[in-house]
């Protein structure tokens, strides 16, 4: 598992890379040009940044902290947009962002290509640079440009399923529950890949339906998960679509009278709640997609494009697995809202 370093070390590496890239573009790296490097190199550049969740959201907070760090490091003038994971709200907020004519927009890809495509066209026509995070929209990017910062969703989802099979000794005929918003095709690429990995191994997969509101308030999922577990008492595992719900696993388990470790709880992301759940034995496996980077790098990419004329950055932020054996390595950073 690859673990991110401290924010300070990471900031230095990123700024150094950006500065070197700019100098290489001119064809001359000299002592004189090194002296021309400046702080706040993106000062005055207006950027709209979509956090995705609501203020205080477990996952969104880490994304927000990454974006705030990037703004502090580059000097960019960033306005943060909170959407509560509401797809229609994101689309309306994107319309409003384009109308305000910033230099760049960092957009969550959750609404999908059909909703984003016409707005990306408007942004391109207005000369607004776009970057996407967390959920990719490759068709949109192919037509109107922009980079993607986030996990490679299909491989990440399949890898989680395969790791769970190996880690928990699952076999054909075992039952696994997976909760996700199955109505949103673009949103369940990752969870669908986990389901496929289980199905390929002969497991019985039961799909439970979540809603975007459950990401903002994971307690809303209690009835759905409780009903799923009561209807499938033989279930060996439940997989969650994000850190908000995975961090709430102790509540779900206690609601149906399960003890720590009686059912394997797995999913994606890290957070203070997930670290606590690892410590107390409620969570056994998560795939870390490093949301701090999903906040930091989109702003860095937009600044590089706007100030230095660089190409958009594409970064796979998937970092491997967190388990009961290694969760302590990220515990302090998770508590700080950085992992």
UniProtKB/TrEMBL annotation:
Pfam families: Peripla_BP_4
InterPro entries attached to this UniProt entry: Bact_Solute-Bind_Prot2 (IPR050555), Peripla_BP_I (IPR028082), SBP_2_dom (IPR025997)
GO cellular-component term (any): outer membrane-bounded periplasmic space
Signal sequence residues: 1-27
Sequence ranges assigned to domain Periplasmic binding protein in this UniProt record: 51-300
SUPFAM superfamilies assigned: Periplasmic binding protein-like I (SSF53822)
Compartments in which it is found: Periplasm
Any GO MF annotation of the entry: carbohydrate binding
Keyword annotations of the record: Signal, Sugar transport, Transport
Similarity-based family: Belongs to the bacterial solute-binding protein 2 family.
Name of the molecule in the record: Simple sugar transport system substrate-binding protein
Organism of this sequence: Kaistia hirudinis
């Amino acid at each position: 598992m690859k673990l991110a370093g401290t924010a300070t070390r990471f900031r230095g590496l990123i700024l150094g890379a950006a500065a070197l890239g700019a100098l290489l573009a001119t064809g001359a790296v000299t002592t004189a040009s090194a002296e021309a490097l400046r702080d706040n190199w993106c000062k005055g550049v207006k950027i709209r940044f979509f956090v995705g969740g609501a203020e205080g959201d477990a996952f969104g907070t880490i994304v927000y902290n990454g974006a705030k760090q990037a703004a502090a490091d580059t000097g960019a003038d960033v306005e943060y947009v909170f959407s509560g994971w509401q797809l229609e709200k994101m689309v309306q907020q994107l319309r409003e962002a384009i109308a305000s004519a910033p230099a760049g927009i960092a957009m969550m890809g959750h609404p999908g290509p059909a909703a984003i495509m016409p707005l990306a066209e408007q942004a391109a026509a207005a000369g607004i640079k776009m970057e996407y995070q967390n959920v990719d929209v490759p068709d949109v990017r192919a037509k109107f440009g922009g980079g993607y910062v986030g996990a490679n969703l299909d491989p990440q989802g399949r890898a989680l399923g395969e790791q769970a099979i190996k880690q928990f000794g699952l076999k054909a005929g075992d039952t696994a529950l997976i909760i996700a918003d199955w109505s949103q095709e673009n949103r369940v690429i990752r969870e669908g890949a986990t389901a496929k990995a289980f199905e390929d191994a002969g497991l019985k997969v039961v799909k439970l339906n979540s809603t975007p509101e459950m990401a903002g308030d994971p307690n809303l999922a209690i009835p759905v998960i409780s009903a799923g577990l009561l209807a499938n008492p033989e279930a060996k595992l439940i997989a969650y679509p994000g850190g908000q719900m995975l961090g709430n696993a102790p509540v779900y388990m206690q609601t149906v009278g399960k003890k720590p470790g009686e059912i394997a709880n797995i999913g994606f992301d890290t957070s203070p709640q997930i670290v606590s759940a690892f410590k107390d034995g409620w969570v056994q496996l998560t795939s870390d997609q490093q949301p701090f980077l999903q906040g930091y790098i989109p702003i860095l990419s937009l600044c590089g494009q706007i100030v230095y004329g660089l190409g958009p950055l594409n970064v796979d932020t998937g970092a491997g697995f967190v388990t009961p054996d290694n969760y302590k390595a990220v515990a302090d950073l998770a508590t700080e809202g950085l992992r």
